[in-house]
Every structure is written in C-alpha cells, then in structure tokens.
Amino acid sequence: MNEEQQDASHRREVHRLLTQGKSDEAQNVLTQIPGETPALRNELHYLHTWHAVVQEAWEQVLQQVRAFPVILDGVDQECLLTNGSLRRRQPICLLLLGEMARALGYRAEASEHIQHGLALLNERRMNIPEVRLLTHVYLGRIALEMNQTTQALVQYETANRLWTEKETNPVFHAAILLGLCETYTRRAQFEQALTTGKQVLRLLQSSASMVCQEHILLLLSRISLSLGENASALVYAQNARCVAS
Fold first, then answer.
1. Phi, psi (5° rounding) for residue 189?
2. pTM here?
3. Alpha-carbon separation of residue 68 from 4, 7, 184 (angstroms)
4. Which domains, from first to last, does the chain contain?
5. How many separate helices (H) and strands (E) can be counted in the chain?
6. 65-84 pLDDT, tens per residue?
7. Which tens digit of pLDDT belongs to each residue from 213-234?
8. Cβ atoms within 10 Å of 80's Cβ, excluding its own
9. Rounded to the nearest 5 degrees, what angle is found at the Cα of 107, between the Cα atoms of 104 and 110?
C-alpha cells in the first residue's frame, strides 16, 4: 500500500470511529495523517472539527468552523457564532460542520451533522428561527444532490412554510423556491414546478438581482417543453441567452 492509499485508509477509519463516537481512537489515527496538500488540509480540518464535536469541546468547534471557508446563505453568520450561550450556538456550528462535509463530498455525513443540529433546535429554549430555516434549506440541498426527492420535497416545503414576510432577503427566498422548483421537476410534477419557477423569476427580477436568473430561465424552458408549451420554452431560452450575455 503506497502513502496515498494509506492516508485514504486512515481517513476512512477516522470516519468510522467518529460515527461510532470513539473519539480517542479517532484522535490516534488522525495523528498519522499528514496534511501536505490544500485538499487534504481541508479534510483534516473537517475531521478535527468533527472530533471536537464528538468530544463536546464546543469552544474548539467554534474556532474550527470560523477558520473553514464556508459561507451560509441569507444570515449574519458571525453574529450567530458570537451571540447567545455556548449551548445555543451549537446548532449553527453543526450546520457549518455539515456544509464542510458537503463541500468535501461527504453528503451522508453532512446530513447527519445537520440533523443533529435540528435535534438540538427542538430542545427546550433552543429554537433559533433563522438557524431552523437554514437547516431545512441545507437538508433539502443535500437530499436533492443525493436524488432523494421525497426528502428534498419535505425539507424545501418546510423551509418555505418557515419563511415569513418579515424576512428582508428576497434573493434567499428565491433560493428556497428554486430548490422547491428543481425538486418538483425531478419528480415530474411539472405544473407545480412551473408555478414555483415563475415565482422565483418574479422575486429575482423585482430585486434587480441577476443571481440565478439564467439558471431559472433555462429550468423554466425545460419545464415548459415537458408540458408541451414549446413557444414558452423558446421565449425562456432566449431570455436566458440575453441574461448570460
């Protein structure tokens, strides 16, 4: 076994041990993995953060998630990591840990970390509305990436229900609805997809945001084709081309 294969074997072993809650054994294996490349350093950063969670060393977890290049949508991330008791900051740490895992391609682990955070949010005096909303959005994204469309639908519909008119970020609301639109499309629920996609487009246009406009226009074009609305499909495709240019 060469060095690269040995490192990969060690990383798999750390995943197994941390999943089983065996933090001491995981730490022993972690010390044997060199972080000589940026990709490997990022993975080791994630594994050390996960190890700190298993050990319930939350001050260390806070430091670790701050140092990893993950930015959550639609919230003041630093504010959520700074304000409140250490216990109330645990769900946002777990959400960030989940995003660290997702960025590295570990979608199953990402879902488990974020579900852990959701369980904490359900405890007494732990509900943080903006973190709960984000939790369902990111669980929806992971489920969609894993082609688990039933689970994605549950998560995105929950996030959409949690959205309130008090929220002031229409682009983030559009992102929630875009996930819902993509889920409907994967499930061949094209009428619902079309209605939701049009709502996404209105939100993006009303906020003068070009973010995601090309993507939603192309998606609306595909949905229209699936419904046999060829003329509408052509218009959406042409508009997407205009946005791109």
1. -95, 75
2. 0.89
3. 24, 21, 33
4. 41-167 (1.25.40.10), 171-245 (1.25.40)
5. 13, 0
6. 988 877 777 678 888 899 89
7. 999 999 999 999 999 999 999 9
8. 21
9. 85
